[in-house]
């Protein structure tokens, strides 16, 4: 009975703090991963807005083009922007997949730490 009464105190004094440090490290890593993912999403939004402006300019400029050469020049600019947008999307996709894997790894590590904790009664 004496052991049961002292168990929560022993746990707090000798086990709990060590686990809190490990859990805090995992929390910080998860937070960093989420911040990086958020940054990627912000970048995507900026790139998409820019691409939308390029398409709008193309649409407006086609009506004002004086020759086929003008239209071909505009199309070349749009194709260049399309390639850049494609590259940007591919980079973001790779980053997102990488961050998803990092989050899965951190979740598994967090689950392992939780499983190692003794129950508190």
Topology of helices and strands:
Layout lengths: L1 H63 L3 H49 L5
Helix pairs in contact: 1-2
Explain what the structure shows.
The chain is an all-alpha fold. It has one domain. 93% of the residues lie in helices and 0% in strands. The longest helix has 63 residues, at 2-64. The radius of gyration is 27 Å and the shape is rod-shaped. The protein starts with a helix and ends in a 5-residue tail after the last helix. 0% of the residues are buried.
Question: What would a concise description of this structure say?
Answer:
With 121 residues, the chain is mainly α. 93% of the residues lie in helices and 0% in strands.
How far apart lie the N and C ends? 12 Å
Percent in helix: over 70%
Biggest pleated sheet: none
Please tell me the total number of domains.
1
